[in-house]
Structure prediction request, 132 residues.
Amino acid sequence: MEHRNHTPHQSFSYTYSPSREDELLKIRKKYTADETEAKWARLQALDASVTGRAQLVALIIGILSALVLGLGMCCVLVWGTNTAMIILGVFVGLIGIIGIAVAYPVYLSIMRRRRDRVAPEILRLTEELMNK
Prediction:
């Protein structure tokens, strides 16, 4: 604890820093985690992996499809000086709309498959953690 008088108004400043022993114990704990903590960390990682991959794939599909839709709109609205460009723009835009519509079902499908794959391990870990 540190006390300083900077002005005649008696300001107070407090600075805390943990002792070396506290820091050593914190570092040691990271490398000597007990079995329960390791299981808990594994459970959290498995749970996060279920949605992580599905979100990434769905976002990529959705973003690319939105860009394709935008390209189709540009074909119609900006470059649509002739009928062929307008028709091309409509078809490109429809492909983008279909891609956007497919993104969520793809997300659900990937998540369902991943959940089915990791469910036995998650159930085993939760059972072990609940019995401790």
